[in-house]
From TrEMBL, chain A:
Top-level taxonomic group: Bacteria
Entries under Gene3D superfamilies matching the protein: Pyruvate-ferredoxin oxidoreductase, PFOR, domain III
Protein name as annotated: Indolepyruvate oxidoreductase
Keyword Transit peptide among record annotations: no
Residues of the Pyruvate/ketoisovalerate oxidoreductase catalytic domain: 12-101
Pfam family of the protein (one): POR
Record InterPro entries: IorB_Oxidoreductase, Pyrv/ketoisovalerate_OxRed_cat, Pyrv_flavodox_OxRed_cen
Automatic annotation (TrEMBL), chain B:
GO biological process: small molecule metabolic process
Required co-factors: [4Fe-4S] cluster
GO molecular-function terms, A-Z: 4 iron, 4 sulfur cluster binding; indolepyruvate ferredoxin oxidoreductase activity; metal ion binding; thiamine pyrophosphate binding
Domain Thiamine pyrophosphate enzyme TPP-binding, residue spans: 361-508
Pfam family, one: TPP_enzyme_C
Cofactor: how and how many bound: Binds 2 [4Fe-4S] clusters. In this family the first cluster has a non-standard and varying [4Fe-4S] binding motif CX(2)CX(2)CX(4-5)CP.
InterPro entries given in the database record: HACL1-like, IorA, Pyrv_Fd/Flavodoxin_OxRdtase_N, THDP-binding, TPP_enzyme_TPP-bd, Transketo_C/PFOR_II
Protein name: Indolepyruvate oxidoreductase subunit IorA
Protein purpose: Catalyzes the ferredoxin-dependent oxidative decarboxylation of arylpyruvates.
Alphabetized UniProt keyword annotations: 4Fe-4S, Electron transport, Iron, Iron-sulfur, Metal-binding, Oxidoreductase, Transport
Lineage: Bacteria, Pseudomonadati, Pseudomonadota, Gammaproteobacteria, Chromatiales
Subunit structure, interactors included: Heterodimer of the IorA and IorB subunits.
Length: 168, 541
């Protein structure tokens, strides 16, 4: 099986690394080899952050090569253009606009909503995702994030249908 | 033997787990990206971990533990090893008792550092064995191996990691615990541990002989591996470059070096002879390439352009094909900036208005160099603010000298600012000097670690608290003031201006917790109050 490459991008404080933890935990628990890496270190809020997640039967480098991402998840509109180069031709971009403004109880769970949209396009059971939410996030955040995830799944399903009608 | 337990760990977490399984009795270090999480993780899983004021002290404490027969781990970022270099170079001459492992976490590409020095040089220069893991599993395995090497040859061992090992999560199957057979207890060894020239001369010969033996052992060691493949292309690599190269050239034969100093030269020679073309894939300097060239081996290095920044799969492909055309620039993201509400903002707004010449230092506050403040003129290394500021004051014409102020963070002040104050008091410039300590009650830059000035230890339990104002006064600074830069009635700017006008020695401490740390600090304080209340209740019961 080929390696699935996913790049997550946003600004510090948006939960980019949290989202990549959730994603990599889900893939890992599904039995895949997973590598994830990011460059972090600065505490301050607001700078660009990206995180790479790769999974498959065998993964070597922990970094997604430029132009080879199957999926690009972006949490902040301003970060879409600068990160587009990660995508391979035909790769899927999930931009923050996919999650309608106001649909989330708390915009802080945008990261999990975007994962919800992604989840429709990957082969993991919904339960596995929910379990990752439970292991990676504090208990008081479970409900709000489960709701965000469900909302994201609806969005993902619509994106999938749109793709079918486009005949991709 | 690996267990069936499967964990997804960062390289840093893997080192911490291995340290626990190695029975490490003391973990000590100083925060620095990308090393910081090792000791934090070690503490979380129950290991004894503490922050030292700086890396030199950390290594010295670890040495003491080793002399006592205990295993000790000391962690730091690459530039931290510069600070610890003085004890390191002589520690190499001394027989370790308990195993001592120093983790050097390098930052090729400078995601969060002031330079991209390649600390593989230290193994050669200090005469110390070096291990370089290629993923978290190896970080785990090599940490255990490092303690065993350290005790077998009685040498300190460097475990050299890089950002993509420290912060990359990969699968780890931990093994059983492998503690030391040595029990802590004191045994005197004057010629072995007291490095006066008479004892150090034979010690130098001894460490060279130890390295010869380790090199011999390394010829057969399973810390180095062969990945068989096509003989037309051979690759020699170490660290994360092993993974990039295996992906870039899956058909190649590879020698992946794990114990990268002292080199297993015979094995390398045989490998080189066994392939048609042999390319060295190494991140950073051309060290391995140069070492093999000296031996007369027919190997290819990388073009100079690949010395800079990190390697990755596309860059390794380019090296293998000899491509030196300009590379596409990586996407330029939004640079970090001081958080909204950060008290460093008021400080740099004032410095900017006052048109100061700012000898700066390293921490979140270094962002004062960027717009809208642009209020920093120099930044070299931790602690340099004070020395550089004094040098400027001594030599600039008076009207310019009076504009010079040294700005230093609280963690940085403890790390290496105290000797700067001693210098200032001992050799005062004619116009005096002003040092501004921006004290936000945490080591914010690296993710909010405690330090001796916060009054809490690594695990956030109460500790003795260093009083900066009292220390500066005791050292002989004439004017010492403490002010909250966010309280207008405390008039930070006005008081700083008054200090700058005097030709005297002054320290201003701008005290205001980092807004990301403040809620945590309140939580720690509350937990402490509750504990005290419980104790009091138990006593009156
Ligand atoms: C020798 C060395 N060790 C560690 C570091 C990493 N580092 C950079 S600044 C800093 C301390 C920052 O804390 P502080 O001075 O309190 O400033 P703040 O970030 O809180 O504003 C650290 C640990 C370094 N650059 N050099
Ligand atoms: S993390 Fe703290 S010190 Fe750093 S910029 Fe933010 S508020 Fe300021």
């Amino acid at each position: 099986m080929a390696v699935t490459n996913i790049v997550l991008a946003g600004l510090g404080g948006q939960g980019v690394v949290k989202a990549s933890d959730l994603l990599s935990t889900t893939a890992f628990n599904a039995g895949f080899e997973v590598k994830k890496s990011e460059v972090h270190g600065m505490s301050q809020r607001g700078g660009s952050v990206t995180s790479d997640v790769r999974f498959g039967e065998k993964v070597l480098s922990p970094m997604v090569p430029m132009g080879e991402a199957d999926f690009l998840l972006v949490f902040e509109s301003s970060q879409v253009d600068i990160n587009r180069g990660w995508l391979k031709p035909g790769g899927v971009l999930i931009a923050p606009e996919a999650i309608p403004e106001g649909a989330l109880r708390n915009r802080k769970s945008l990261n999990v909503a975007i994962l919800g949209a992604l989840s429709v396009m990957l082969d993991f059971d919904e339960d596995q995702w929910i379990r990752s939410i439970h292991t990676c996030l504090a208990e008081k955040l479970h409900t709000v994030n489960e709701q965000a995830f469900a909302l994201g799944r609806e969005v993902g399903q619509k994106m999938g249908r749109a793709k079918e009608t486009e005949g991709v | 033997m690996a267990s069936t337990e499967r964990l997804l760990l960062s390289g840093n977490e893997a080192v911490a787990l291995a340290a626990l399984h190695a029975g490490v009795k003391l973990g000590t270090g100083y925060p620095g990206t990308p090393s910081t999480e090792i000791l934090e993780a070690f503490d979380l899983i129950g290991g004894p971990a503490q922050w030292a004021p700086n890396e030199k002290v950390a290594l010295e404490v670890a040495l003491g533990a080793s002399f006592a027969g205990a295993r000790s781990l000391t962690t730091m970022k690459h530039v931290g090893v510069n600070v610890a270099a003085d004890p390191l170079f002589t520690a190499a001459y001394i027989d370790m008792t308990g195993g001592l492992v120093l983790v050097s976490a390098d930052d090729p590409g400078m995601a969060s550092s002031q330079n991209e020095q390649d600390n593989r040089h230290y193994a050669r220069a200090a005469i110390v064995p070096m291990l370089e893991p290629a993923d978290a599993q190896e970080a785990y395995d090599f940490t255990l191996a490092a303690f065993e090497l350290s005790e077998r040859w009685k040498v300190p061992v460097i475990l050299r990691m890089t950002t993509r090992i420290c912060h990359a999560k990969t699968e780890v199957r931990p093994g059983p615990e492998r503690p030391s057979s040595i029990q802590p207890g004191y045994e005197r060894d004057i010629p072995g541990r007291v490095m006066i020239p008479a004892y150090a001369r034979p010690a130098h010969h001894k460490v060279r002989a130890k390295m010869e033996e380790i090199a011999q052992w390394n010829e057969q060691s399973d810390l180095n591996r062969i990945y068989p493949g096509d003989r037309s292309l051979g690759i020699i690599a170490s660290g994360v470059a092993v993974m990039h190269a295996r992906e870039a050239a899956p058909e190649a034969t590879m020698l992946a070096l794990g114990l990268t100093w002292p080199l297993p030269m015979q094995r390398i020679k045989e490998f080189v002879a066994s392939v048609d073309r042999c390319v060295i894939i190494e991140e950073g300097d051309h060290l391995l390439y140069e070492a093999l060239k000296v031996e007369g081996l027919d190997v290819e290095g990388k073009p100079e352009m690949y010395r800079f920044s990190e390697l990755n799969v596309p860059r390794v492909r380019r090296i293998l094909s000899g491509d030196t055309t300009p590379e596409a620039k990586p996407p330029r993201g939004k640079p970090p900036e001081l958080c909204k509400g950060c008290s460093h903002r008021e400080v740099f707004e004032a410095l900017s208005r006052m048109d100061c010449i700012v000898a700066g230092d390293i921490g979140c506050y270094t962002l004062g160099v960027l717009p809208p403040f642009e209020a920093m003129d120099t930044c070299v290394c931790m602690g340099a603010a004070i020395g550089v500021g004094l040098g400027l004051r001594h030599t600039l014409p008076d009207d310019q000298a009076r504009r010079v102020v040294s700005v230093i963070g609280d963690s940085t002040f403890v790390h290496s600012g105290l000797t700067g104050i001693a210098e200032m008091v001992y050799n005062p410039p004619p116009t005096g000097h002003v040092v501004l300590i921006v004290d936000n009650s945490t080591t914010a830059m690296t993710g909010r670690q405690e330090h001796p000035g916060t009054g809490r230890s690594l695990n956030h339990e109460p500790a003795n608290k260093m009083d900066f104002a009292a220390v500066c006064r005791a050292m002989g600074v004439k004017n010492v003031e403490v002010v909250d830069p966010q309280k207008p009635d405390e008039d930070f700017e006005g008081r700083l201006r008054a200090m700058m006008e005097k030709d005297e020695l002054s320290v201003m401490i701008a005290e205001r917790p980092c807004i990301l740390a403040a809620p945590l600090i309140r939580k720690f304080e509350k937990a402490q109050e509750e504990k005290q209340a419980q104790c009091a209740a138990a006593m009156t019961d």
